[in-house]
Amino acid sequence: MYTILVRLSRRWLYLLKDSKVIKSYPVGIGKVATRTPEGDYTIINKVPYPYSYPGGPLSPFGTLWMGLSRPHYGIHGTNRPSSIGKMVSRGCIRMHNRDVEDLARYAGIGTSVKIRP
């Protein structure tokens, strides 16, 4: 069974299997005014966001959205890769598109997500 652990102070997301870290990724998190909420959640949906046309612009959610059980929050890609590692979002957890796509291969609907300081 997989679990996702997000460490806000480190701006890093860890994928755990049986409590052992098997992958880790840098993330962008919420701004001071719109902090990423700490707590225990689950992934409730996964929505791909393809390019609007080949070579066209990406959605602000990058190539993939994974919604959390807390409404309006999720783990997603970005069309601004320079924002990774910074406090810039409205509370969501941003990842490089290749990283969120990799994470999604392991994290299915119902995967536990623990967001900690």
From TrEMBL:
Molecular function, one GO term = peptidoglycan L,D-transpeptidase activity
Q: What is the organism field in this record?
A: Paenactinomyces guangxiensis
A cellular component term from Gene Ontology for this protein is:
extracellular region
Source organism superkingdom: Bacteria
The record's annotation in Pfam families points to: YkuD
- Record's protein name: L,D-transpeptidase
Belongs to which family?
Answer: Belongs to the YkuD family.
Active site annotation, chain numbering: H76, C92
State which pathway it belongs to.
Answer: Cell wall biogenesis; peptidoglycan biosynthesis
In terms of InterPro entries, this protein maps to:
LD-transpeptidase, LD_TPept_cat_dom, Transpep_catalytic_dom
- Ranges for domain L,D-TPase catalytic come to 2-116
